[in-house]
Amino acid sequence: MPAAPVLAPLDLNGDLDPALSVAADLAERSGASLHLLNARPTPPTYLPPSDPDAGYRAQVEVVVDRTLGPGSCAALSPTIHVAHAAHPATATLDLARELNPQVIVLGTHGRRGYQRFVHGSVAEKVVRDARWPTLAVPMQADYWLPGPDHPVVVATDLSEYGAAALRAGAEHAERYGAQLVVVHSVAPMPQNIGLFAPWDLAESETDIPPGTSEAVYEQMGAVGVEGADLIVRRVEAPELIDRVAREREAGCIVMGTHGRRGLGRALLGSVTAAVLRGASCSVLAVRVGEESEADE
Questions:
Q1: In angstroms, what CA-CA distances link 23 with 26, 121, 165?
Q2: 110-128: per-residue pLDDT in tens?
């Protein structure tokens, strides 16, 4: 059975898009077809030529050759899609419903306005709403791919989301020959405690409840993860994940997410969003549960 495709919406605003390199590499390693999306604003109402999207597809071919090297588009032979939609995230999710990809790969950076047409907040919306795994690649990341010197960092909160992240992280690390580093955050001690001196609070990172590490190892064993480094600290989760990723020069962070809406999404999705906005490497968000905007 052929591998599910890799889907990558592209930025055509002039910058070389690292997400394209990551998507092409992942498709090659997994033996999957590569599908590239040029998401455009809703077309004008005048009568278009016989093939109005030919020029848009040609733009993608130019970007592929400019990013990956001359002749790369012909060698890769990706399927190029042009979609017209009011919002690029909508176009991405609509195409994903048709393709059912193994992963959506897309870039992120801090631009605003039209420059964020395929990046920035669009990436956050796709990560939040897609029922498929999404790999967000920061434009200014230190490292975009895992490898022997760039481990995969997996965050677990001991829930089903953490278990899904562990499974996906182990698979991703094996694919790239990378070390797996598992991190678990314990809720920090309150900071406004007059009975404690500042040096007591500074040492509280290692004040871990008994049995915490054992519980993480138990979850790792339950999903078949072996040989991973484990880091448990009493630090807010986004801070700990970002710190470990930078210290270890990680090539990817893996986190579990879900399709909840409203307050549940706001609370449980805040960690993924915070990590995504400041990540020093790619972030793979793994869906747990089927509920999402795509279902409504």
A1: 5, 20, 20
A2: 444 444 444 446 788 888 8
